[in-house]
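ok new one. same drill as before - structure tokens go in, u give me an amino acid for every spot. 441 of them this time. try not to just spam alanines like last time pls lmao
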């Protein structure tokens, strides 16, 4: 069995790499796969994103470069999916060429953004090179890891919160990762409760028990965070869990939890409904967005050019508009917005296919990306950044969906070609026979 699987792996690399049967190539692919997984682990367990960036630099970048050097077939970089992925980083990087550093609150050299652009290019290549060999199996394995990681991380965060007297004070919980940022960690566990719905469909039973535990811990965490989008994610996850559940009685209990128990618990704890609590956040954001759009209107076509940090002055200075589209608009104008819309339209096109929506892969990744975009419209800045929360919100699910689409299109193309080739054989033989008969005649 192992011999046949290894021979099939070698045949799948034939024509793609020099010496495809070498242990060097297979070892690099395994190392690169582990590197991608380590980055996901880091988002859940490491307190500082700087350590995630260190993993990225020391493992993913060198192994990807070595694989690319060893590769013969580079045609995957000509696909529209790669162009779509790299379009936003490319436009933002080019916009630094006309940015005025005198307007920056915090400055960076232009070369910094060209380095970040290379990081994005190599990240897409890394994901493609691994998924090309591992396929959907890798994405299913990722979801299992994310369920286990999220449950451990969320449980640890709640323990730390309790030891600090949080359950008595009911202050907003910050978690053990991502610099203990309230909104970012709440989104992390919002994704986690969605992944747990996938786990409810797994065998053996221990996966379902782990997923129910993770779902419960995640919902408790999200309520304590008092963060609005994760609350919507928790409610959506509970409804999806009801659909996945095999027990009708459990479905009724779960739906009642969304309709009655969750809102009632929130009112009891905080004296308000979830989406109405801390309502001043809405008015502050509207004012912030209006102020940010003033810069866009001064140069609507290409923007003012990207600088590292350009604080926005209201009653206090804020580092960004808390809306990635508005931030892209003020720095890169309509050119940047067009690139962002291309990415959104590409994922919408993938998601509108019935087979994509009704299967866990890529269906759960579509949910990941959809809620990530919603968070980017409320919490985030322009997305040309080194590995950070924006990657887990946006770039990782976007890259997964685009690579998945690219590989599916390549498989469909090769199947179509293989079906056409046999049909050419009779016509060629008939031509030869016809020519032979004519020569005899």
């Amino acid at each position: 069995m192992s011999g046949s699987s290894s021979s099939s792996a070698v045949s799948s690399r034939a024509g793609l790499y020099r010496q495809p049967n070498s242990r060097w190539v297979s070892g690099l692919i395994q190392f690169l796969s582990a590197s991608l997984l380590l980055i996901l682990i880091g988002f859940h367990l490491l307190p500082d994103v700087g350590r995630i960036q260190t993993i990225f630099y020391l493992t993913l970048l060198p192994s990807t470069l070595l694989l690319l050097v060893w590769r013969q077939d580079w045609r995957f970089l000509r696909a529209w999916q790669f162009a779509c992925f790299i379009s936003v980083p490319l436009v933002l990087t080019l916009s630094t060429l006309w940015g005025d550093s005198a307007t920056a609150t915090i400055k960076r050299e232009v070369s910094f953004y060209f380095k970040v652009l290379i990081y994005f290019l190599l990240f897409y290549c890394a994901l493609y090179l691994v998924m090309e060999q591992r396929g959907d199996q890798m994405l299913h394995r990722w979801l299992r890891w994310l369920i286990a990681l999220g449950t451990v991380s969320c449980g640890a965060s709640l323990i730390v919160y309790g030891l600090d007297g949080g359950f008595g004070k009911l202050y907003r919980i910050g978690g053990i990762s991502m610099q203990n940022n309230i909104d970012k960690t709440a989104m992390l566990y919002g994704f986690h409760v969605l992944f747990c719905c996938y786990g409810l469909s797994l065998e053996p039973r221990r996966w379902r028990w782990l997923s129910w535990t993770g779902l419960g811990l995640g919902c408790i965490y999200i309520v304590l965070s008092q963060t609005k989008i994760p609350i919507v994610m928790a409610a959506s996850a509970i409804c999806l869990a009801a659909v996945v559940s095999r027990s009708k009685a459990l479905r009724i209990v779960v739906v009642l939890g969304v309709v009655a128990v969750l809102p009632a618990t929130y009112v009891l704890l905080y004296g308000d409904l979830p989406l109405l609590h801390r309502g001043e956040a809405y008015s502050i954001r509207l004012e912030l967005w209006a102020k940010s759009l003033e810069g866009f209107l001064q140069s609507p076509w290409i923007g003012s050019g990207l600088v590292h940090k350009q604080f926005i002055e209201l009653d206090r200075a804020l580092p960004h508009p808390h809306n990635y589209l508005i931030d892209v608009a003020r720095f890169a104008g309509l050119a940047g917005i067009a690139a962002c819309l291309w990415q959104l339209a590409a994922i919408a096109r993938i998601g509108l296919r019935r087979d994509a929506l009704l299967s866990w892969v890529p269906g759960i990744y579509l949910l990941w990306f959809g809620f990530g975009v919603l968070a980017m419209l409320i919490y985030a800045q322009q997305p040309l950044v080194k590995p950070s929360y924006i990657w887990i919100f946006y770039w990782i699910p976007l890259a997964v969906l685009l690579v998945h689409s690219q590989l599916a299109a390549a498989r469909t193309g090769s199947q179509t070609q293989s079906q056409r080739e046999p049909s050419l054989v009779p016509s060629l033989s008939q031509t030869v026979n016809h020519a032979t008969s004519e020569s005899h005649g």
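The first strand starts at residue 312 and ends at 313. and btw The longest helix spans residues 389-440.
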